[in-house]
Specification:
By secondary structure, the chain is α+β, with helices and mostly antiparallel strands. The protein is about 20% helix and about 20% strand. This is YkgJ family cysteine cluster protein.
Amino acid sequence: MNYIPWRLTKSWTCLMCGRCCKRYAVNLTWKEYSEISKFWPDKVRIRNKEPYLGRKMDGRCEFLWGNACFLEMVGMKPLACKLWPFMVLTKPLKIDENFDGLYRTNEREYFVYLNPNCYGINRGNPVELVNTIEEVIKIWNGSKKEQYYSTSRKLLPRVLSNPLLSDKEAPGCSSNKKTTLEGETWACAHSFGITPSTLKYTRELGD
């Protein structure tokens, strides 16, 4: 695959199209596997001694909700998903003869490339490209966890932190995937296998 050096792109943004969640198997770290399997043991897999997210019969990620990542909304998005479509290296690819993937920070040099299969390339605000590259590098080296530039703005913020404990507070959620509360439509998180003690509602995604 011919990865694209970041300097050869005009811009990038996440379109929240869900394409990356429908085409690729996502490898997990063992720490991520342990955390996710506490809540959804049937939605993660181990193959050839490597953990990864489960996929549905049609190839979609088990945690794809519409075109959005449910794990991102509950603060458990895997590193591989946070980085996609970017690849961060400490040495250039052989195809990068002109060092177009080079990005210098105060500490060191990195080489950043994009997967050409992402529809978000050359979309969005060109001014934010450098901010995105900086954020991706920090996420890659572990100095940052939260995303802003490198994820869809439609997901910020989407999680309601206070649990709703009774059907009286949210009628209909015990048996349905959606309910209406205070005039707004919500999705019931239990449909993803969350136990009653950790039941939370997240707003149904919209434009």
